[in-house]
Amino acid sequence: MQVLVNLIPLSSDIWVYLAIDILIAISLLFTLRLMSGKMASVSTSNELCAQDNFAFGISVAGRMLALCIVLSAAAVSSDKSDFMGAALSMLLFGLVGILLIKVGRILHDKIILHRLDKEAMIKKRNTSIALVDSASAVSTALVISNVMVWVEGSDINALFAVFSGFVVTQAILLTTTRIYERRYKENNQSGSFQRSLTKGQLALAVQHSGNLIGTAIVVSAAGSMLNYNPVGYVSNLTGWLIVGMALTLLLVALVIIAKRVVLAGLNVVQEVDQQHNIGVASIEMVLSIGIALIVSGLVA
């Protein structure tokens, strides 16, 4: 009789590792939820339930998804030689992930979107800002997680490599955001990209979220083209930066072509920037992420 399912033999210890990883993950997610309220000087329960602040919920959800992405990489790269080593590796990378996600939000607030007060906008229920905030956290986590899989072990050299990936992510997100800001200004009679977000322009937020996540996906693919050198701190940093930026520029060009073909006959600038058409913005978001996935798959 033909075998219907051919399973790869699994170690009997897999359930123990699963229990350890899930326990640590849930504990860290709960910690992240508490920290989100403390950092914003609000009660998470009050904001989510009593105030029904959807923007705050979207922002916290984005950070939770970002943490889960980082933890998934920690689970893959953790040492499976013993239970204690696996738990410590998972906990270490999880705490590093929380730290870098938090630092990334601060940098995104103070440097990338420096003309607005993100926390204040989220408190005022600005879902556009919250959506971009979530996309920023997820973008940072995508690159960090791929660097975690790229490195070997969980020693100090691996942590330096992870930090290098974080720096590269913020640099490229800053560059791409400035490019899109400039293009928005040219297409909207010197209008301000960040000011439009503060006014609750949701279509623009959806469009830009796709840009951020798509950029992170192609930057993550740089690991497939680079060799890991535990003590090559400079080469690791410059390698990720140069290859990541090259892939980002390739993505920008391909997305422009894809949008002109797929959305032929539509005035995208008018639909998204002026008429706030979320449907067209959603298609743009999918094209950015979809093309990024294809490029990433090809490189890998």
Features:
single chain, 300 residues, mainly alpha, 12 helices, 78% helix, globular
Outline the structure in words.
- The chain is mainly alpha-helical.
- The protein has one domain (14-299).
- It is 78% helix and 0% strand.
- α4 packs parallel to α7 and α9 crosses α10.
- It is globular.
- The model has no long low-confidence stretch (mean pLDDT 86).
Percent of residues in β-strands = under 5%
Provide the number of structural domains. Answer: 1
Ends apart, CA distance between termini: 37 Å
The whole-angstrom Rg is 20 Å
Structural class: mainly alpha
Helix content range of the residues, please?
Answer: over 70%
Q: Any idea what the shape is?
A: globular
Extract low-pLDDT stretches.
none
Q: What is the β-strand count?
A: 0
The helix/strand order is HHHHHHHHHHHH
| Tally of alpha and pi helices | 12
Would you tell me the overall average pLDDT? 86
What's the story with the biggest beta sheet?
Answer: none
Secondary structure layout plus pairing:
Blueprint: H1 14-40, H2 44-50, H3 54-77, H4 83-112, H5 118-123, H6 127-150, H7 156-187, H8 193-198, H9 202-220, H10 233-262, H11 268-274, H12 278-299
Helix pairs in contact: 1-3, 1-4, 3-4, 3-6, 4-6, 4-7, 6-7, 6-9, 7-9, 7-10, 9-10, 9-12, 10-12
